[in-house]
Structures are given as structure tokens and as C-alpha cells.
Amino acid sequence: MKNRMRTAAALTALLALVGMSACGRDAGGDTTNAPSQQAVDTGKATGTLTMWAMGTEGDKLPDLVKKFEADNPDVKVEVTAIPWNSAHDKFTAAIAAGTTPDLAMIGTTWMGEFVGLKALDPTPEMIDPSKFFEGAQATTVVQDTSYGVPWYVETRLVFYRTDIAKKAGITEAPTTWEGLHDMAKAMQDKGGSKWGISLQPGQTGSWQTVVPFMWSNGGEIVNKDMTAFTFDDPKNVEALKYYQSFFTDGIANKAPAQGTTEADFASGAAPMFISGPWMMASVETAGGAGFADKYDVALMPKKEISASFVGGSNLGVFKSTENRDAAWKLVDFLTTDTTQVEWFGMSTDLPSVQSAWDDESLKSDAKLAKFGTQLKTAFAPPPVQTWEQVSASFDAQVEKVTKTGTDPGEALKTVQQEATSIGMG
User: Fold this and answer.
1) pTM of the model
2) pLDDT at 5
3) Binning pLDDT at 50, 70 and 90, where does residue 35 land?
4) Cα–Cα distance list, 141 to 60, 109, 162 (Å)
């Protein structure tokens, strides 16, 4: 507890980094022109609602909304399931054509873009933003205003083989950067594993693993008033250099085969990796009976704080809706703690509402409970319209750093130049 105040200060700074807080405030910007958040009537929902949702959520959601329809007999919810790989283009086309649904599941990194296109309705005051995890709520806020709610969340932890760690003389999970590196090296040298840890060497989405190390080090991606990118911050350079060390020291594979993380973890070839809760079922299937007792998960290692990436999906109501009140009532229903627990049972999606984690179905699972703990210090990228382009530039430079030994400082200077050229939208 001796570092609690320092940690709290670091957390406050990082929340300011993304320009948001659980109360929907931005660290900078002009609040006088914030869109009004119109009230929602208190009666029963009526009429027809159209909703889009991706992947498994789109398939399972119709069963969940039956209770909402039962509670509101004069409303009908029509859910359309759409594939993730075509969802972004489908949304932007619908926004341009004015044919959006009433409400939808929206990827967290799309919020800034869709708000920039003036497509989303501000979140009404009927929904209390403080009930959500701070990092998750932050993904809904653009320029001081919330434009949706977190629906479900995910974050990343360190998965590690406890049996191989024990063989290497390690009985406790690493808690620091140095500890993670040393443990990976020991599992390779003394535990008999081919590699110490599996890390993504660049390519799409690698920023989701690398940027948390920057946040952990007190680094920033943008300045506090959201006017400039700060990728070349020395703290970010130090974090990327640390990430690079796993590859230059031969602890992580520079060219891993795609789709082999679970198999390599089960075989012991790569006894550590960083990923989300969905991997629990995958590695246990790969490992077979009894494998659940051979691994554990640990919070992300700490420099200034233990930081991780917060992902998942949000719910948003489109401005074009002709049934706004009913749409927000459905959003409210989907984010009550009772509904969130029920949805977890149906989909295994982790609740964005903090009180839902008090349910026995979540807190009784020791591994799962650690994801709930990590969510308290999990952060999102800044809500800029161009994040998809900017992150692609970052991913490309991470690949050069890990595979060809490019200097991390030079790589981040390139990202800084490209991001500045792309702009924030």
C-alpha cells in the first residue's frame, strides 16, 4: 500500500491522457459547445427498434432482448447480425446514406470516427456513467461528451504455465518489468521451453500489447489537451525498447506461425503470452483434461503502474433514429447489473458494469476475478477519428523494431511524423 498515492497520481494522469473520465469529462477542449443530452421519457418502450450487432453477440442477442420485449409489450426489437470483417464499412456506408439502425454495437476504436461524422446521439443523463469501469467509460467520450455506453469489456493479462515456472524455480507471478523478463528467460533456460514468452512481433493489432507498456511507464500517446500526438515521448521509447528486448535476447520468436499460441502454450514451447479472457477456454481445450491446473494468469507487470488495454464493445444510438426514447431504454436495460450477469452466462462477455462483478458466477472464478482487477487500470486509445490509420503506422514500426532491430527511438519518431501528417480528423 505504500505506493498507493503515487499509483493514484499516475492513474489520474493516464486518464487525462485519453482525455476522459468515468464522469464523461475531457481534460481539455471547450465545454461550452458540448451537445445537449436530451431527457428520455419514463414510460414503457413502444414501437419497433432495429439493432445491429457483430459476431457471436449478434447471434445471441435476440434471446436476451426477449425479456425487454416482455417488460415492454408494445415494443419489437429486430436484431441484425453482421460479420466483424465487414462491419466498419457497413456502418460508414449507412451513415453516409442515412440508413443507420436505431442503435448498434459499436467497436470502441470507432467512436471518435462516428462522432466526427455526427452520427451518434449523446448519452442521456438517465444512464449513470460512474457504474462502468473508468477505462471502458472513457471509450465513449469525445470532446467532453459521452456518445454511448460500454456494453461488455475485455482486458489483457499474462498467461503463464505454473508447472514450467516451478521447474524453473519460480513460484510467484512476476509483478515488475524486470520480473517478467527474468521469468521468461528462466522458463526458457531452466524450464526447458523453446521460447520464454510469445509476443506479437508487429502486424495488425500489436499496438494493443505494446501501448500498455507505455502507459505503465507513465507515457502518453497524445498531449493532455488532445491537440498533438506524443509517440516520441522518452517514456514511450523506453517502453518500446523493453518490448524489443524480448526479441533481441532470443526470448520471443520473431516469426511465430499464426494461430499456434494455444498449441505452443499447451505443449510448453512458449509458456507465457499476453491476451484476454477468451483464451482461457481455448488453452484448456488445447491442453486437455486437467490443463486448467497447469496455468494461471497474472496482472500486467508494473513500472509506474500495472496498465493494460481495455477493449470490448459499446452501445450507441444513432441520431437518425425515429424511436430515440425506446432505443435508450434498451441500452439502459442491457447495462443493468442483472442483465449483464445474464449476458455473461449466455456469451461469456465480461460485464462493463462494476457491480455485476459481485455476482458469484464471476467472483468465484479466481482467474476471471483477476481480469476484473486489471480492468480498474486498463486504458483505451485516444478517441480520434484517425486512430485506425495511426495505429496501422505504429504496428508497422513495431514490426521493424522486433524483426530487424530498428532503434525504438527512430521508430517512434517515424510514427510521430506519420501520425502528425495524418492528423486527428
Assistant:
1) 0.84
2) 29
3) low
4) 27, 11, 40
